[in-house]
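In this supplementary section we document a worked example of the pipeline. Step one takes a protein sequence of length 185 as its only input; no multiple sequence alignment statistics are reported here. Step two produces a three-dimensional model, which step three serialises into structure tokens for compact storage. The input and output of this example are shown verbatim.
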Amino acid sequence: MINGALKVFAAGGYAHASTDEIVKEAGISKGLLFHYFISKLGLYVFIYDYSVRYIMLELSTGVDGGETDYFELILQIRQAQVKAMKNYPCMLLFLNRSQEENVGEALAETEDKRGVLAEEYERIMERADLTRFRKGADVKKVERVLSYTMDGILTQQMRTGAFRPDLYFEEIKEYLAMMKKFFYT
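The serialised model returned by step three reads:
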């Protein structure tokens, strides 16, 4: 049920997700969905909360508290996300899509969790040693390029049906190694 909801909400956001699609994807009856979640909003809130908690757990066990290398920290964050996607392939897509959510009721019901992951990522990256970057390198732009690249690879692999967490992670590692060579002294 969780994977079905993640997939449908990730594809269309809250407004375009239908309970008919969700139950079809999950292979359950509509009655069962409404028995546990009362409404589409109840399901969305549960899925959002569950996803945030799940990724936070993976980050807490997957990111080395003593690591300071910028690219290694990003790699460890992505590895934690990939570990979650082994069980829930659409979880990261759902969380990314939820950042674009514009339906008032969905925003209001998830407001207390909205910044949790961003704050955790920021907290992890605060300990990165930026002195290894080449003079003149704009670390914020490097971060955006990496984020766009990694999210784009994920989206492309999901869209083509070729997503495998292990292959996705290997490709991420290649890009990070390339960027490290380019931006570090």
